[in-house]
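Bit of a strange request maybe. I'm writing a small parser for C-alpha cell strings and I need a real example to test against, not something I typed by hand. Could someone generate the C-alpha cells for this chain?
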Amino acid sequence: MDGPPDVLPATSRSCDDRRGDTCGRRPLRGSRRTDRTGVGPRRGGHSGSRRQVGPVERVDQLDHAVSQCRACRRLVNWREKVATEKRAAFRDQTYWGRAVPGFGPADARVLIVGLAPAAHGANRTGRMFTGDRSGDYLYAALHAVGLANQPTSTHIDDGLTLRGVRITAPVHCAPPDNKPTVTERDRCRKWLDIELRLLKPTLRSIVVLGGFGWQSLLPTLENNGWDIPRPRPKFGHGVEVDLGEIRLFGSYHVSQRNTSTGTLTPSMIEDVLRAAGSHAGLSVSSAAN
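Reply from user aminoacidic:
Good idea to test on real output. This should exercise your parser:
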C-alpha cells in the first residue's frame, strides 16, 4: 500500500512507508453463495454488520467469524467494489472481496501484525500478504530464516505453510486509498483482542510491521492482561520491548516504498524475524555471511 507517512496518534494515516502496511483466502466453500464476482450476495451493507457472533473459542472459529464481518459500511462497499471491477491483470480471477482472516497455526509462538489487506492482494486472494509485492518480500524473509516452507505466496492453494508463525492485521478489510479510519481500526480491534486471547498460551514474540499496528496492538495487549510500560514504548525499527511472557519487536513495514528505497532491506527484516523466532524458541537459520 502506498501513501503518506503513518503516525496515527488519533487520526487515520497511511498503510505504507516505514510505519505502514500491506497484506494479502478464496471464498469459503459452504459458507455463503458467491456470485460471479466472488463477493457473494449483499446483505444491505452495514445492516448485516450487527449480527451477534457466537462464542469464539478456537482460531478456526475466529477465522470464520472474521470472514463474515460487515461491521464497517465504507470498507464493505470498497472491498466489494474492487472485487467487482478488478484490476485488468486479474480480470479472470474470482476475488475474495471480504474481510481477510489471519493466516498461520493456532499454536503459533510468533505473531506478525501488519495493518490491512491490499485491494488487489489479500482482498483478491483471501490470505494475508498474498498476491502483492509486500507479501513477496515478507515471505522471502520468513523462508530465509526458516519460518516458511517456500519463499513465495501467490494464491491460497500454493502450498505455503508457516512454522510457528501466524500473520494478522488490526484492520481486516482493504480500505479506500489504503487508509483505514480510527473508527474502523477501533471497531475491528475486537478481532485482534480475541486472536491474542486464543494465542496467549503459546505466544512468545510479536513482530509489528509499522506504527499503525504498534499503536493498535498496545491497548489490545493491555486488555488481555499484559502490563504495558508507562510511558508507552514508541515504535521504531529494531525496537524490542519485554512484557514478561512475550517480547515485542518493531520493524519497518515491507511496503514497496520502503523496500525499493532501501529503507528496509532483506537483512533488516530477516534480523528482526530471526530475533523474534529465536526468542520464541523456534529453530531459525543463521544470518548469511
